[in-house]
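Just wondering, does anyone understand what follows?

——
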Amino acid sequence: MIEQEVLKLLAGDAEILQRVTSQAHGERLYIGRIPQGVEVPAVVAKKIGRSEHYGLEGREDSFLTTIQIDTYDQTPALADSLAELVATKLVGPPGGSDYRGSAGDHEIESIECTNIRSEHQKPTNASDNWRPRDSRDYRFHHS
């Protein structure tokens, strides 16, 4: 699963890892959704789409996979700052270049951020504590 490899890539960044690690919960990097009752900050990766490349000779061994990466924290500003750390790791700083190289069994050729949304996640219990979330879609061109 490329989502798992992307989370491993993010865990390799000391600043991101420091932000999402706690004594009680360890690394708060999740696939699919954030578990109930988990502290923030946290990062969640979820594959939301994938397409295959075709050339004149037929199907090629490369894919475009879109992964939604949500960052959660105590305030919108903190969720956004964590999302910016993730963006810097994946697509590089402004004027820089995106990550290219191995991610587990995948060879990443390019990454681009295609959509950015800031919102609050609705409480799943009787509390009125809405979690600030920054949600970004990244398109990975990989083999």
User: Anything to note?
Assistant: The chain has a mean pLDDT of 86.
